[in-house]
Amino acid sequence: MARVREPQVVIDSFTSTLAPRWSRGFGDGFYGEVAELEVASNGDLMIGFGVNNYGWDVTPYHVLRISPDGLTRTSAWLDAATALVVFDEGYAIARGYSPTRSSIEVHAWDTSLVWSRVYDGEYTINRLARASDGTLVFAGEINATTNFGTGPLEPYWTPDGDGWNAYLAKLGSTGETLLAQKLNLSYVRGLATTGPLIAYSGELWTQLHYQHVGRLGKLGSSTAWSEPLLTEFGEAAGSLSMSSSGVVYANVAPIFHWRTDPWPFLITLD
Predict the structure, then answer these.
(1) d(CA 107, CA 136)
(2) Which 3 state secondary structure label does DSSP give 107?
């Protein structure tokens, strides 16, 4: 278990029966929250830290890898990062240097750059997901004509000024573009991939808020589906995960009456 206790991150280690093993503080200058926490195949902890922005997007600023005995293997500060995902071989980040220049970078755990990609257009990247085969998926919003390598994507705004400009793109293990498409959504809030399949959640904002959970098959095959879930000024569908067989587990929070608070649910879709 990892938590931020400024100015350090505190990690508590437990056995398989939940008996305490050790508790230690690491580093200096930590703040915000734990944004990513994964366990590597050798038992290392891979942790990303970030600052929560308005309840949905977490801006990452640091990545840490700790051995099972509590030794620091990697500690790296992230400059101008907007999204992060950690995995056995390293970590991937999106960087947003300006509204017209964002990039995807994959790094090894020694912080060396494996590959990077920059695309033409005006867009944000606020979600990243990676599969064990090296497939990388990213999502965000476009604000002008943008080309991720498969042709131009065009933004759309309603007469009321609402943008339906969410997109997702899929890259191969060496950064080649396999898929890029717009989604009929205002925002993407959750993202997961197995490689052949991509799951996403988000919100379409009209006069009401429509929560969506969707799944795309390989290169947009016939296994695709999208489930709209009407909510009256509730919260957008949030984080999700997906099993190797494609079952999607998604957090949603609909409102059943305008005078009530959102009700959190975990739903399963296959």
Answers:
(1) 13
(2) strand
